């Protein structure tokens, strides 16, 4: 299984976006994404005892930054079931990823490595912090490490690739952080039930405790009306971040259509998912996802019309309109 097959296995939607990128950018972002998925595995895998996770995340950062032999990590995760879990399989093939990574220009690796290490170390700190979030500032801190840093990584790589992006970098960096926070806020909304079932609640206590809810009662069917007020607060927060993500996208020149598409699709998928989730009680009870047909529709329309900023802003607004529960799939 090569790096692109790994990418498709762990994320069909991000694979769509990354594979739009030209040549060296495609290779670099694919490998950066897969290195980050190793970090995700070490953070999320139920087969790794919680006390070991910070140690393994810091070990992974040391391997990336200082060239410590990766076999040290591979031995620690060899017992995990990579046959039935693609993310574990990616982590168990970290030696292959690093060999591929070494083929990238040194300048690119000097850009990517610090960002991946920063994310891994941030994840380690949060594993030690524990599965609760007090307020919105803490939520933003967590989301910065797992998503905001990724926005910085992408922007730095684009600036390396193009002098035009280098000139735009000061404008785009703050927007890149917001773009990442927007995507992650939507991830938290659509995955809140599954996160809770594995022991984590990323929703700030300051959102639900004033309503008389606890981290457990938030997910009880009898509290759905109150819980949906929490979802509304999260959705409002996501909308503000995603609006800055749109500004990031509009900053990319229209003639760089492939790069625009690669940034456009995650944003529009998030906007659509948020619209499906805002008024939908399934967010609390299970999970809300876009259908494959909805994904295909966005991909098709943007391929033909995404070069136009005016059309894109209009389409963004169309996708962001909340769906009434009876219309939500």
Architecture overview:
The protein is an all-alpha fold and 329 residues long. The chain folds into 2 domains: 1-115, no CATH class; 131-329, Farnesyl Diphosphate Synthase, CATH 1.10.600.10. 73% of the residues lie in helices and 0% in strands. It is built from 17 helices and no strands. The chain has helices at residues 3-10, 12-18, 23-44, 53-66, 71-77, 86-92, 94-101, 106-129, 136-161, 163-190, 192-197, 205-208, 224-250, 257-277, 282-285, 292-305, 309-320. The radius of gyration is 20 Å and the shape is globular.
What structural keywords apply?
329 residues; mainly alpha; Farnesyl Diphosphate Synthase; 2 domains; 17 helices
Short recap of the structure:
It contains 17 helices and no strands. By secondary structure, the protein is mainly α.
SSE arrangement:
Blueprint: H1 3-10, H2 12-18, H3 23-44, H4 53-66, H5 71-77, H6 86-92, H7 94-101, H8 106-129, H9 136-161, H10 163-190, H11 192-197, H12 205-208, H13 224-250, H14 257-277, H15 282-285, H16 292-305, H17 309-320
Helix pairs in contact: 1-2, 1-3, 2-14, 3-4, 3-6, 3-7, 3-8, 4-8, 8-9, 9-10, 10-13, 10-14, 13-14, 14-16
Number of helices: 17
Structural class: mainly alpha
Report strand %: under 5%
What is the CA–CA distance across the termini?
Answer: 34 Å
Name the CATH class of the largest domain. Answer: Mainly Alpha
Low-confidence stretches: none
**Backbone shape:** globular
CATH-scheme architecture of the largest domain? Orthogonal Bundle
Q: Looking at this structure, what is the CATH superfamily of the largest domain?
A: Farnesyl Diphosphate Synthase
**Secondary-structure element series:** HHHHHHHHHHHHHHHHH
Helix content: over 70%
CATH fold call of the largest domain: Farnesyl Diphosphate Synthase
